[in-house]
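Ticket #4471: structure output looks truncated?

Reporter: J.K.
Steps to reproduce: submitted the chain below (478 residues) through the standard prediction queue, then opened the result file.
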Amino acid sequence: DQRTMIPFIKRANATATASGHPIRLFMTPWSPPAWMKIPVNGVQAMDGSAQPNGLLQEYMQSWALYYVKFIKAYKESGVDIWGLTVQNEPEYAAPWEACTYNATYESLFVANYLGPFIRSEFPDLVMMGYDHNRDDIYSYASTLYANETTKKYLDGIAFHWYLSNQLYNVNKTHWLDTNKFVLATEGCNCPGVELGNWERAENYGRDIIADLNFYSVGWMDWNLVLNTIGGPNHVQNYCDAMIIADVLKQQIYIQPSFYYMGQISKFVPPGSVRIASSGHITFNTPVGQAPYVQNSFNVIASACNGAPNQLWNSSWGSGVTVGLTSSEMCLDVENWDTDNGANVQVYQCGDSQSNQHWTLNSSTGEITSSLDGKCLDVQDFSTESGANIQMWDCTGGSNQKWEVLGDGTVKSISSGLCLTSGWSAFQHVAFLTPEGKTVLIVMNSSDNDLSFSIEDKQILGQLVSTHIKAHAIQTYSW
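Returned output as attached by the reporter:
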């Protein structure tokens, strides 16, 4: 730390501070010392973890004190720590440094040890819980916030981008307590390095825009710079980065992802506030397969935009399959679940699968599953873009009524939002900056150039008719 990390951080922060935006550093522990951990097969080690919890309870106090001493040591070396997460990926007993916590155990650690220690020494330091993938963010945060003492100490919930696109869980977590925040603290393209890969850059753009639209207050890459194989890494967990350094040649390569990140971070300064934006695109030529839709992608209600991942192909008779246009993915009740609250996803279309057969009642607007007769339902009557779609006993509620339009979109009567799965080919997010500028970021991940108009309701008029090239990202400000 003293030989390389701290000098590097101080130089970087000096440069950032000179530009008017000092770096905010947060710490994320991966493993306690081996002697503090529950043995696995009789062995205590920093790599790996016992499950469901890896930290010995009798060492919770010692481990919390370790955080305090680490923060103090850095401060004495001239580096201030802005915040921390309790544990990196607490649900993963990884083959590298790891320590699992279920939500109840993490809550116990925060409420009785870490929270009191940190608040007594660093009252303004930001504390974040969870710090794992979107699939469990809501359930984990719900448990943390259910303990009022834990909730008092936590400022927000951190999450990662891996394994799931369940943005509705981020949305729901925000609404658990709007005085807390949600923050995307890690994303990374793996495995290895792929120089000049623009698809990986688009992965960044899609995820950043989506997370910011669903209340994340920021977004962070895992790595600033890596070598040409995606390391160094002592367990060969090689990944990509925005900057690749060839140590032997003393050269650096700027990856396409650098420019996607820069397109947002350059024009959206700290202190900006996301504002509502909506868009509709008419695709004049076929875009091919509905973009970025995979098995098990969730189905949500989101703003109607005419993109292929909102166009459903069905005759809408009795007991018919409903598939995404130009795709082999069908509307599907996950895991043949017949309970209320069963999740709805898209999955490879199959023959004679009752969990993929649907009936539209044109007189009531209800869409029912042949699996159990339950209704397609907008969870919690939500009118927020990103609301999850589930199955529920038919009640006649407006959140179970749908309108099927001529272009294939399926619109919720209660919210006016459209049935959606996967990433949209046309994404956008808007902000009001501290200087009072409106910033609109638009991304096109389709194979076609797209034309659209920009309107600002605050100034009551159309600003400009414009276009965006295929596979491009653009920023507008006024």
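Triage note (M.O.): checked the attachment and the full token line is present. The two ends are 44 Å apart (CA to CA).
Status: closed, working as intended.
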